[in-house]
């Protein structure tokens, strides 16, 4: 079986005032059908650029993105609705003049399939009352509106969802609710790439983690093996939030090497 997503040696460089700024350098990874992979990196690591390339909003300078063995553009043309996205800014990603029903059914309307769906049932699937379908965005809280965005992303039954910092703008308690929702959705076999700067969020909803540092994947590791991570980037992020132990028995990130300030 083909991988669901393959990123092969993707590089991207921007030019600012005549200066070339490499943002992605030979990025390579894959996601199997139904696999939940996290991508984490500090600000400026290249996460947003990679997300835009995966969504077809930007082209790489070199390398390629394949979906089920086919180039991205052709695959999306042949498989409408099979990839979707949930963005960070839930308020800007919806039309404030539309009802929640219109927002949730938007992908199906584009595909000419709106008549086959029940918006109320789709809202219930993400933990909202079905009667919210008649409300408008300004009548919902941030967490409720992000659930609406997730319902919309799932409307066309995609095989891959890209979550681009989808919980980072929510309050901590609301983040926890959304992450619990995603854990429940994972039981349905949905595959995703969860992009975030929050390692704890990534670990809670993913089975594998990619660490992106200065445009390169420096670690690709299963969640249950994080204590054996070797890259400086992974060790720094892990040491900041988790009391992992190194194989030598010392505190993770505090053994033989001082952390750079």
Give the helix/strand layout.
Layout: E1 5-16, E2 19-31, E3 36-40, H1 47-54, E4 62-67, E5 70-71, H2 72-78, E6 83-86, H3 100-110, H4 119-125, H5 142-154, E7 160-164, H6 172-186, E8 191-196, H7 199-205, E9 208-213, E10 216-222, H8 232-241
Parallel strand pairs: 3-8, 3-9, 6-7, 7-8
Antiparallel strand pairs: 1-2, 1-4, 4-5, 9-10
Q: Looking across the biggest beta sheet, what order are the strands in?
A: 6-7-8-3-9-10
Please tally the helical runs, counting DSSP H or I stretches of 4 or more residues: 8
Bin the helical content: 25-40%
Total beta strand runs: 10
Strand content: 25-35%
Largest sheet: 6 strands, mixed
Shape: globular
**Mean pLDDT level:** 88
Give the SSE order as H and E letters.
Answer: EEEHEEHEHHHEHEHEEH
Query: Mind telling me the C-alpha Rg?
Result: 19 Å
Helix-and-strand structural type: alpha/beta
Poorly predicted spans: 244-261
Q: How far apart lie the N and C ends?
A: 46 Å
